[in-house]
Write a structure and sequence with these properties.
A 6-stranded mixed sheet has the order 3-4-2-1-6-5. The two termini are 12 Å apart. The chain is of the alpha+beta class. The protein has 2 domains: 73 residues; 59 residues, no CATH class.
């Protein structure tokens, strides 16, 4: 399997995880709205229960917005551009762990490859930024070797 196929499968795994999260959030938002509607209008101006339901809905809507932004960020990754240098959209394979510099959704598995999808803004991502295969990275006292950058 070539590097573009691997990266495409990793992107698809991240996309699938995001879409599941978006679906769950939409369900929670709809449920909170339905509960607020079933409860009816506020009983008095100190009706905390209805306010709590609506705050929960608003909080989930903010999380949904964040997930939608991450989905759009994932779509900005260019597959045709050969990198070889770690940066946004790179799959960095090390002797310790594997990282996909894209969005921060954590541990994933794809094609028997375990990796961590991390944001380009986190310190680890900044430590490997600009590195290439064969480079050694010293991050917070831990040294690791970059085996390959896809």
């Amino acid at each position: 399997m070539d590097s573009i196929e691997i990266k495409l499968k990793v992107i698809e795994a991240c996309r699938k995880k995001l879409l599941e999260s978006i679906s769950n959030l939409e369900s929670v938002i709809a449920d909170a709205q339905q509960q607020a509607n079933d409860y009816g209008p506020p009983r008095d101006r100190y009706d905390a229960f209805r306010s709590q339901l609506l705050r929960r809905k608003d909080m989930m809507a903010q999380q949904l917005d964040k997930e939608m932004v991450e989905l759009k960020t994932l779509e900005k990754i260019e597959l045709s551009k050969p990198t070889g240098i770690a940066g946004f959209g790179s799959l960095v394979l090390t002797n310790n762990q594997n990282y996909f510099i894209s969005i921060g959704i954590g541990k994933m598995e794809c094609e028997n490859l375990e990796f961590y999808a991390i944001s380009p803004l986190v310190p680890l991502s900044q430590a490997v930024n600009g590195k290439k295969s064969g480079d050694t990275v010293d991050f917070r006292g831990n040294k690791f070797l970059i085996r390959e950058v896809i």
